[in-house]
Amino acid sequence: MNKVKNSEQPKAAPAYQNRVTLVGYLGRNPEQLEGRAVLSLATKTSWKPKDSDEWQSRSEWHRVVAWPPLAEAVRSLAKGDHVIIEGELRSNERSDLYRVNDETYVPTKVRVWDIRARSIRKLVRKKKAAKPATAAA
Q1: For the chain, what is the HEC assignment?
Q2: Which domains does the chain have, with CATH numbers?
Q3: Does the global pTM surpass 0.90?
Q4: pLDDT by residue for the chain (137 residues), tens digit each?
């Protein structure tokens, strides 16, 4: 009996992966800062609770940073544009002052999360066809 050797080994999953894909609308025009572009992206999640007939939703705002040459490419985008953004999640720690009362502030470390964009594409939605007018009887 001849045994056939399979030269292709199954590929293992990567040990690490940091990939984000977001689809949403720009909340303002891209802001150009020191060679990079910063975008504000809104996404929305909707659900219908089992005990209700009413839909609920939650909007999230994401800070997206694009570095050259992508920063130059997003200059033509504008508030309200529908976009898909692919990139990776990044965190940074900064110091901030936390207000305890009217006169007291305490220095506090704050972790902020950004999306570092690898690609940004503008999406164009097809317009709905106009419904034909019906003749009144």
Answers
A1: CCCCCCCCCCCCCCCCCCCEEEEEEECCCCEEECCEEEEEEEEEEEECCCCCCCCEEEEEEEEEEECCCHHHHHHHCCCCCEEEEEEEEEEEEEEEEEECCCCCEEEEEEEEEEEEEEEEEECCCCCCCCCCCCCCC
A2: 20-122 (2.40.50.140)
A3: no
A4: 556 566 677 888 889 999 999 999 999 999 999 999 999 999 999 999 999 999 999 999 999 999 999 999 999 999 999 999 999 999 999 998 888 888 899 999 999 999 999 999 999 977 777 777 666 55
Residues 6+ apart with CB under 8 A from 110: 93, 94, 95, 96
Phi then psi for residue 24, to 5 deg, are -170, -160
Tokens 């572009």 — which residue?
Answer: 37
Q: Is 20 exposed, middle or buried (0-12, 13-18, 19+ CB in 10 A)?
A: middle
The whole-angstrom separation of Cα 12 and Cα 30 is: 39
Q: Which of 32, 123, 57 is nearest to 86 (CA)?
A: 123
Residue 76 has φ and ψ, to the nearest 5°, of -80, -10
